[in-house]
Amino acid sequence: MTTAREIMHTGARYIPVTETLDRAAQMMRDLEVGALPVADANDRMCGIITDRDIVVKAIAHGKDPARVTVGELCEGTPRWVPADADVRQVLEEMGTHRIRRLPVIDENKRLIGIISEADVAKHLSDTEIASFVERVYVTR
């Protein structure tokens, strides 16, 4: 059984909900990632901010990224999987909620990694990849 821990990208870091979008963009650049989990004051995940969120929801609307916080753009309920989750659970979570990045937490509910569609693709057959892509990307 392949687990989330085995396919995740390590080194994921939270960004505080009160941090500005320009700082989020700088962190993404420095970490070479396109998304950051967002943490509340209790260091618990309360959302995810993506590079696309910054561009489409803020910059394209003329908002100043130095004045808008990541918390202002986070929407919905954050999704995650435990580190010992089977890869099938990972696929189900990503497919059901049509998400491309999935945080992984340890037994203490702390962020330990993140799984992207590229991480998943490395561990699937061509048929499984096609099914995954259809569930996540194809509009219905």
Automatic annotation (TrEMBL):
Which intervals hold domain CBS?
A: 8-65, 73-131
Whether Mitochondrion counts among this entry's keywords is: no
Identify the domain of life.
Bacteria
Task: List the Gene3D superfamilies.
Answer: CBS-domain
Give the matching SUPFAM superfamilies: CBS-domain pair
Does the record bear Ubl conjugation in its keywords? Answer: no
Q: Which UniProt keywords apply?
A: CBS domain
- Pfam families named among the record's database cross-references: CBS
UniProt name for this protein: CBS domain-containing protein
Source species:
Peterkaempfera bronchialis
What lineage is on file?
Bacteria, Bacillati, Actinomycetota, Actinomycetes, Kitasatosporales
